[in-house]
Amino acid sequence: MTDKTDNAAGPLIIERVETTLRLTLANPPANALSMAMISELQSALDKAANDRTVRVVVIAAAGKVFCAGHDLKEMTAHRADADGGKTFFEDIMKACAKLMQSIVKLPKPVIAEIGGIASAAGCQLVASCDLAISTDKATFATPGVNIGLFCSTPMVALSRNISHKHAMEMLLTGEQIDASSAREYGLINRVVPEEYLTHVVMKYAESIASKSPLTIKIGKEAFYRQAEMNLTDAYDYASNVMVENMMTGDANEGICAFVEKRAPEWKGE
Fold first, then answer.
1. DSSP β-bridge partners for residue 129
2. Predicted structure pTM score
3. 213-259 is classed in which CATH architecture?
4. CATH 3.90.226.10 domain locations along the chain
5. pLDDT tens sequence across 195-223
């Protein structure tokens, strides 16, 4: 079952497909992360975080560009402000940083569905998602250096996904990489033919949604927290998480179902 939220006035299409929430950037050709787009995405994610019926979130885009980054026309227009645009620049960078962190902190997995160009903050958006699947025609870049604006905020997400050498290559040259290279670098999970993109993404979503939502929540939070720790602290933390997870009803149900060779019935507790 698919339900579409009426959001005609905004740049984001919001749909429900069973337990998956699909957020489609719909302001082509660039699908830029304007202040309005960031606000719409933030609002949708905030609602999803508290909606027990949402198990997975997919971020997709309409048109040939996934997301070209920030709206440079919008930003340039604010140079006419009394402070030369500084307040607006601070506000939009803060809002964008909050959005990217909200994706990481969301207690449900977020999958990027990339059918075209993902550039600058658009590449940052891909890197911030838990999983990323693209077509073989998609390209990725952090080209700010070409216009005198180093992609410093995209760098944060990029450097946490791929090796430092690959990240610096993208940041220093500003050149596009193809989908095959992005997969080799570790920026995306899979490359599929264009006609199968949504089907494959939704298969991933369906598989994840079949798991215990509580276990997924515990695991996602633990993954990102331990990644910032040293080895000893990470094992101490993960061991405690494992014990707490074992004490949940869903863990008991899952183990019993496995032993009894039946399908588990998740309660989310």
1. none
2. 0.94
3. Orthogonal Bundle (1.10)
4. 2-209
5. 999 999 999 999 999 999 999 999 999 99
Mean pLDDT across the stretch 237-244?
Answer: 96
- Superfamily of segment(s) 2-209: 2-enoyl-CoA Hydratase; Chain A, domain 1 (3.90.226.10)
State pLDDT tens for residues 135-149: 999 999 999 999 999
Amino acid identity for residue 92 in this structure: I
CA 108 to chain centre: 11
Burial class (CB in 10 A: 0-12, 13-18, 19+), 225: middle
Q: Enumerate residues 6+ apart whose C-beta is below 8 A from 6.
A: none
Asked if the model's pLDDT at residue 186 lies above 80, the reply is: yes
**pLDDT at position 240 over 60:** yes
CB distance 103 to 23 below 8 Å = no
According to DSSP H, which parts of 135-212 are helical? Answer: 152-158, 164-173, 179-185, 197-209
Which residue type occupies 33? L
Rounded to whole angstroms, what are the CA distances from 3 to 14, 21, 98, 205, 231? 9, 9, 27, 16, 45
Q: Which two tokens stand for residue 156?
A: 């944060």
CATH 1.10.12.10 domain span(s) along the chain: 213-259
